[in-house]
Design a protein that fits this description.
The protein is mostly helical. The protein has eight helices and three strands; from the N terminus they run H-H-H-H-E-H-E-H-H-E-H. It has a three-stranded antiparallel sheet. Helix 3 runs antiparallel to helix 4.
């Protein structure tokens, strides 16, 4: 019986991601393999990520659990839309009333190749070529002066003109296919 789910636009006809697992493995990029974390990363995970939180649990955590199964059966765009509001917050540029000041969320932003690792050897580079351009499904970043001016309302910007020219905008990204590979 054919799959009910349509192929992701970032997958080829066989369902593999643009950079398949073999290519990523050649670049020493591995996920979903149950490997032991490097010591420094493991220390961070134990001290920060897994530590008990003060106060009540996130109300969105249960909502995400409840929506996950439905999202997994949808095409990529619908799956993302199903989970996005419970996983990401909206910046003020996208929601002037309730959005987080000084931030905006954008879809499919092309990130610089400087975020990609170099090939570990000439053989890997010649055999596999370069990795695909990094492009998160959603990126959170600071509101630019131009976006604030074009919004038609009073949106605060975090930087003056000179500061904006040197800022690295999209510092927090979410790549659904990388961080949630079993979801979509």
């Amino acid at each position: 019986m054919p799959s009910q789910r349509t192929a992701s636009p970032s997958r080829n006809a066989s369902g593999a991601n643009i950079d398949d697992k073999q290519k990523l493995d050649a670049y020493n990029i591995r996920f979903d393999i149950g490997a032991t974390l490097p010591a420094e990363l493991n220390t961070f995970v134990e001290a920060v990520v897994r530590r008990a939180r003060d106060g009540p649990a996130s109300p969105n955590a249960q909502l995400t659990v409840e929506r996950r199964r439905r999202a997994a059966l949808q095409n990529e765009a619908t799956g993302i839309a199903t989970l996005e509001k419970s996983l990401l917050f909206e910046g003020q540029a996208g929601d002037e009333k309730d959005g987080v000041p000084l931030l905006e969320k954008k879809a499919n932003v092309n990130l610089s190749r400087c975020f990609l690792p170099d090939a570990p050897s000439r053989i890997v580079k010649n055999s596999w070529g370069t990795l695909s351009l990094p492009q998160p499904d959603r990126a959170l970043g600071y509101v630019t002066r131009m976006d604030a001016q074009m919004s038609g309302s009073e949106i605060e910007v975090p930087f003056n003109e000179q500061e904006e020219q040197i800022a690295d905008w999209y510092v927090h990204t979410v790549r659904w296919k990388t961080f949630y590979p079993g979801l979509l």
